[in-house]
Amino acid sequence: MSYVRVCSLNELGEDSPKRVELGGGLAISIVRTAGEVFAINDICSHANVSLSEGEVEDCRIECWLHGSAFDLRTGKPSGLPATRPVPVYPVKIEGDDVLVSVTQES
Ligand code: FES
């Protein structure tokens, strides 16, 4: 699994998602909450809305447009209108660097 550096740890505020563009049209939201860092695809599975503009609570990120909240560990929505999960990605912390793997192979 190959990891890419997406930001430094001290750029991440608690419960304050950071949108990172990785090229190829892929944008992810990096979320620091409850002592952990998560990476989730930044686009809501219901419509083309940036999840990083939503609020974080109870290890979920809420879509600001219609209110579906996505589990930061699994990507699954907690309720309608979204029905499909959003991809989540493994995160590694090395020193002050936040690394994310967006490749599928293990
Ligand atoms: S656009 Fe996200 S729940 Fe509708």
From TrEMBL:
CDD domains: Rieske_RO_ferredoxin
InterPro entries on file: Rieske_2Fe-2S, Rieske_2Fe-2S_sf
Protein name: 3-phenylpropionate/trans-cinnamate dioxygenase ferredoxin subunit
Organism, scientific name: Kitasatospora kifunensis (Streptomyces kifunensis)
Keywords: 2Fe-2S, Dioxygenase, Iron, Iron-sulfur, Metal-binding, Oxidoreductase
PROSITE patterns hit by this protein: RIESKE (PS51296)
Domain Rieske: from-to ranges: 4-100
GO molecular function: 2 iron, 2 sulfur cluster binding; dioxygenase activity; metal ion binding; monooxygenase activity; oxidoreductase activity, acting on paired donors, with incorporation or reduction of molecular oxygen
